[in-house]
Design a protein that fits this description.
single chain; 5 helices
Length: 149
């Protein structure tokens, strides 16, 4: 039994394993020959048996008046009533993520001389070629600049 009929979600590994290719191999026809012979030029006009014409969605669409009325009703609730727009989250216990000052990628390294964060050795080569004072501009972007007096 082919993999696609056993419940696996993987795609066939080659075009010869697809049902269309297997059918054409048995019939000895070229791909989509049955459509060419039937004269169908627009596939949108062909009936699709996999769609249910009687399907009705349960989703209810609200117009602007209903949304505004719901907002006014929400303003009548007590101040300490929890809603999705007033629940405050506790501060995170995880450390703040550090990003490369040049590329914006996650920074694994920091240059000890300039305190510029960088992503990889290639970016470090660029950090070493920066002009004096330009690393202060990168540090200023993340509010970490050092002002020497």
């Amino acid at each position: 039994m082919p993999a696609y009929k056993r419940g696996k979600k993987s795609r066939p590994s080659s075009a010869a394993e697809t049902p269309l290719a297997q059918h054409e191999a048995k019939e000895g026809t070229e791909p989509l020959a049955s459509f060419k012979e039937s004269g169908i030029t627009n596939l949108l006009s062909v009936a699709k048996p996999f769609k249910n014409p009687d399907y009705k969605s349960n989703r209810r669409w609200k117009n602007l008046k209903q949304v505004v009325a719901q907002e006014e009703q929400a303003s009548d609730w007590p101040v300490d009533f929890p809603t999705h727009w007033n629940i405050d989250a506790a501060p995170s216990l995880l450390p703040q993520k550090k990003y490369c000052d040049l590329t914006g990628l996650p920074a694994k390294y920091t240059d000890p001389k300039t305190n510029v964060r960088y992503h990889s050795a290639e970016v470090y080569q660029l950090v070493k070629t920066l002009q004096p004072g330009s690393e202060q501009q990168y540090l200023a972007l993340r509010n970490a600049s050092v002002v020497l007096k």
